[in-house]
Specification:
alpha+beta; 5 strands; about 20% helix; binds guanosine-5'-monophosphate; binds zinc ion
Length: about 110
């Protein structure tokens, strides 16, 4: 099985600035932040992309979003506004094939994204 960057971070084999963990997910700061808050929330389970989600993941996906709201609150951007997103596959810019929810905030986020 090819090495997965985010499995390696989960397992402590690669360093990351981890800001939240629980039994289902870990969250760490993006290495190339696009906003003052740019965190990635990563399920502990290796799921390659949104296309691989199954009905049994519904609770996990809800949890990812609740953790996003918590991180936004912790960063003090909950009221002002923030964005959460999944990139799915190459055409949307996915580069790491281990599901992750981006959380961006702390600056004005324009729409539509590029
Ligand atoms: P994607 O483009 O797949 O939606 O998002 C992958 C994100 O992971 C990118 O924003 C990229 O900057 C970030 N990233 C890639 N490698 C590393 C790494 O080794 N550590 C951390 N913390 N973030 C990474
Ligand atoms: Zn993985």
């Amino acid at each position: 099985m090819p090495e997965c960057l985010f499995c390696q971070i989960r397992d402590g084999e690669l360093p990351a600035e981890i800001i939240y963990t629980d039994e289902q997910v870990i969250a760490f700061r993006d290495i190339n932040p696009q906003a003052p808050l740019h965190a990635l929330i990563v399920p502990r389970q290796h799921i390659p992309s949104l296309n691989d989600l199954q009905p049994e993941h519904d609770g996990l996906v809800g949890h990812l979003h609740r953790v996003a709201a918590r991180l936004a609150a912790d960063a003090g951007v909950a009221d002002k506004g923030y964005r959460v997103l999944f990139n799915c596959n190459r055409g949307a810019g996915q580069t790491v094939y281990h599901l992750h929810l981006h959380v961006l905030g702390g600056r004005l986020l324009r729409w539509p994204p590029g």
